[in-house]
UniProtKB/TrEMBL annotation:
Identification of the protein by name: DNA-binding protein HU
Any single GO CC term annotated in Swiss-Prot or TrEMBL for this entry: cytosol
Keywords: DNA condensation, DNA-binding
GO MF annotation, one: DNA binding
GO biological process: chromosome condensation
SUPFAM superfamilies registered for this protein in UniProt: IHF-like DNA-binding proteins
Organism: Malaciobacter pacificus
SMART domains, per database record: BHL
Gene coding for it: hup
Similarity-based family: Belongs to the bacterial histone-like protein family.
Length: 91
């Protein structure tokens, strides 16, 4: 499912116009992004938690060659699945 299909599904389920559903979905995604940029977490009980993690700089080997490259330190987004979502998917 891509973003457009997701917006269509939200519109149908919530009884909203596609324009209103797009605005709501964009607002949710923007808010999650802004919160993660501040290195704070976003938690939806039962669904999951969005967090950030710092990855240290490292040396990586290029597959198939003996060449190595330096990978700089970075911050990555992470998602930990909540219990209710995990159980719903496992069925």
């Amino acid at each position: 499912m891509n973003k457009a299909e997701f917006i269509d599904a939200v519109a149908a389920k919530a009884g909203l116009s596609k324009k209103d559903a797009k605005g709501a979905v964009d607002a949710v995604l923007d808010t999650i992004t802004e919160t993660l940029v501040k290195k704070e977490s976003v938690s939806f009980i039962g669904f999951g938690t969005f967090t950030t993690a710092d990855r240290a700089a490292r040396t990586a080997k290029v597959p198939g060659t003996d060449k190595t490259v330096e990978v700089p330190a970075t911050t990555v987004a992470k998602f930990k699945v909540g219990k209710a979502l995990k159980e719903a998917v496992a069925k």
